[in-house]
Amino acid sequence: MTTIYRPAQGVPLNRGTQSRVGSMRGLATLQVVPRELRPFLASGTPDVPAAPAVRGGVVSRCALFGRLAEAERVVQISAPAGSGKTVLMRSWIAEAGLTRDAAWVPVDREVRDPRGFWISVADALRGTAAGSALVRPLTAAPDLDGWAVVERLLADLAPLADLAPLADLAPLEDRLWLMIDDAHVLDPEVLPQLELLLLRAPSELRFVLATRHDLRLGLHRLRLEGALTEIRAAGLRFSLAEARALFGAAGVELPEEALARLHGRTEGWAAGLRLAALSLAGHPDPERFAAEFSGTERTVAEFLLAEVLDRQSEEVRRLLLRTSVLDRVSGPLADVLTGRPGGERILQDLEQAGAFVVSLDGRRSWFRYHQLFADLLQLELRRTEPNERAALHGAAAGWLAGHGHPVEAVRQAQAAEDWGMAGRLLSDHWLDLYLSGRGATLAELLAGFPGRVVAASPELTAVQVAGDLFRGALEDAGRHLTQATAALAAVPAGRRERVQVMLVVLRLFLARRLADFPVVAEEAQRLLALTEGADAVQLGLGEDLRAAALVSLGIAEMWALRFENAERHLGQGVALARRIGRPYLEFHGLTHGAHAMLLFRPEASHAEWSRQAVELAGRHGWGEEPLAGVAYAQLGIVLLYQGRLEEAEPWLERAERTLRTEVEPAAGMSLHDARAVLELARGRPSEALAAFGGAEKLAATLAGPHTCVTSMRSRMLQTLVRLGQTGYAGQVLAELGEDERASAEMRTAAAALRLATGDPVAAADVLAPVLDGSLGGVRQTRLVTALLLEARARDALGDQATAGRVLERALDVTESNGILLPFLLDPAPALLERHRLHRTAHPALISQILDLPGGPGGPRGPGGYGGAGSPPVIRGGLGGIVPPRVTELTDSETRVLRYLPSHLTVPEIAAELCVSVNTVSTHTHHLYAKFGVHSRNQAVVRARALGLLAPSARRA
Asked: Final residue of a domain: which of 219, 234, 249?
């Protein structure tokens, strides 16, 4: 029969082990909360010190005290050895002033059977203030019946109403606590008797059960009735702030990074942290110790050996050691590594017993070991079976590869140094990782190969291209792609065609990053043709690649100004990605498709695609990825086009923090351009010029000239004109190529220059091809800009009638698309005021433009244009994704808000504030509602935009 982690007191221990185990009772020492703070614990109001209190060298854990103070009738504290259960109970009794109201029953080998246990319970209850008058003495008879004792206790504590007067008995009126420590040691026959007492006891009798594993006590009934409070290992873990206080109390000062690493290694395990603190005290190099701390450290290893590993049967020990080479283990995989059946049952029993084994899924089919426990197991494996590790890794790699776990299979093959198997697996599965947004995993797996192995393998060299693209190392990507193509003949014949397809895909992806759209179109068409071939499945060409090719082709067509084809292919690619369940590919298509459309057809208002992309990123946890930064930038740009400057800036700021320009240079250029336009619209041309400089640097990395680059340079020239640098602007304009100088973008820049130098005739002449239709492909935003400049030129020439007709035409276009930005970049407030007095079809629009915050109707100040009034409601808005105005925050919400930019989890914030997790969650949800956001990061961005938090350092 298998023995599963039952730390019975009867197990013989040597004197040293007994000393160590006995000392574990104090490892998670807790400090009671001062009495003056009790009202705050009861109310949940976070008006308490933010940091854990340290008194007498111990740490207060007020959040746990709060849970106990608000607990239901029965509390079960279930966690592995060394988690701090005993000390939590004892310190809470002292803090809550329950010394005379709590009956303490420690279970050991003398009180684990019915006779010893129930005598201890009766004696402990009689030792309390309330129990001394109610509970009758119990004689330690050899034939004592546990069931009869329970009935007697129930009669003493809750006598029947019709019998109480006759027996001169009174029911229990004051609350009484029965604290049972190490309840997992109880004999099985005691449990049904204890269950009867739990279910029938009066409500004034409260129970706290500390155990290393869940007890079979029918607690599910209490759980359903809402009468059970459960505190598990996760709740007992020390937060980072508590760990900091613990080390400080021990006189150990660690840098934040070293402390965080140590906290992560111990997973907040109280005993592990306390042992580390004891070992670090007086250590000559505490930072190195923290970096190297593991389960093999002597004091930790001794504890885990005595309390866990040495208590297992040989069968269980073999399973633990041989599966310690895995990051996670299932029953069937354990059976392969041990050569014996029954692994799943053993793992489930270990987890149930609290033996540092954690289930990873609801079905309890996959498990992992606590990091320190895994360290110890691997050390024991090296000691007992030093020659088995490579074979175990190889067997695990084969099983994982055959059961649909390629990433873990590659890692195991690498650990076995089977480079051939690892390389084939990664070559076959890199695309799935790439299209799933798991570029970091791909890069990690590539880093696991020696350089000589990658250099000798054309397939791995090709995979390296994908890793380079993820890192944004585009030059390295081009070099590796050339090397892999040249070495194609060295690929085994049976795999050569797959590698050829792989190279087509990589050329497409690289061309996309370089914005080399003629190559993108060519490779996308080639890939689409391959996906339609008869041997597509054999070559690994699925619908995901077809979706990627369609999206890429649509983007290339957009840049080639073939808008109808572009929108069709983009729509087909996004729809296909959604249908086949490729959310990251859908995210990719929505984001890049919306970016291209926004650059060339802002009047079409494809903000819906950007909104969908942001929602998709939030749903799948991609909110901090560079690609999400592209979507944030697009939302900001849409708002910018609509003249909603204050709403645009938070999105642009979030994009600046998230988007990596080396990974997405074209999008990075657009973001810098948007920042510059925002500054220009606010009347800050110097800041705008600096932002344009960043855009120009990124433009130089693109593969060829593009319309959006010309547009950006046109605005940069207009900024120089705004700064009075007309001579330099004229020099730059003269040095441009003839084709670029003849474009609509540069003609508007030239017109602005001519107006600034007092030559309205030349300005009108240079604008003529833009306005008469002879220059094709003029975007509506650029047309409105040209019309505004033309109106100013005609007005300067004294032709007010023509100026009015031109201005009316500009208003016609603006009314149709809701894009107000040109009126902010080339303001003409006097013309608009005069035009409003004459016959116009757009009086409301003129008022709206003049009333824009930062608009042409207000004075310029240090912060840009002045002006009053609320942001206008423009057609083509963002469907509710724009944050609303914020109502006033409460003091409690403000305190929680200050922690949101940190890396602390909700439980850690609760511990810092000495409130419950529910309190923090409630305040956080209130903040989300008031900010109109759906995530913690969005709340931080919104709070910074409103000045409620200090601004973060902006990325260069």
From this structure: 234
